Structures are given as structure tokens and as C-alpha cells.
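User: Can you predict the 3D structure for this chain?
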Amino acid sequence: AWTLFRQVKESKVPDKVGHCLAHCWLTKSCGPGPSYSIDRPREAWDAAKGVMGTAAMKAGLPPPFDPNNKWQEGDTKANEYGRSCPKETSCEERCWFAQDMFGPDR
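Assistant: Here is the predicted structure, written as C-alpha cells:
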């Protein structure tokens, strides 16, 4: 699963398209369980990094993480959209417009 996510990240597709494709491919090959087990902790970690970075900056400290790299609702929506792809639809067809539907790149 991590190899798949790394390949999507390195492919330079738009952010939300990558989220959608990765979760679609993973769900079609392994079922929804692995997709959920990666999605929830990953997005929670992004949220925590954003909070810690913002809090540090407000306290006048250098942020431990990039405060711009934080959870985005569009990531979670794109993940779910990919996970819910019908069997008869390809992931590429399903996810082509995910960027337009779920938001800008980071």
C-alpha cells in the first residue's frame, strides 16, 4: 500500500487526483479496509502538524512542521470518492475531475 501511495505522489498528478487514485486502486485491489487504515491516521497527522505549526508561530517559536501542510477536508473527500468507485468504472475515469471537485493543490 505504501509503495502505491509513493508512486502516486511521485507521479506529479494534482493533489486531489492523487488522493482519489490511490484510494481507488487500493480499494479495488484489497478492499476498503487498508484504505481506511491509511486514510484516517494520515489525515489526523496532517491536522496535528498544522495545529503544532500554528501554535508555535503564535508563541514566537519556529514551527516544528510547515504550518501550511495541514489537514484539508478536500483530501478526505477525494479519498472517499476514490474508495467508492463502482466496479465497472476505472479509477482514472472516476478520479479525473477530483481536483476540480475537492479543491486546490497544497
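The mean pLDDT is 82. The first helix runs from residue 2 to 10.
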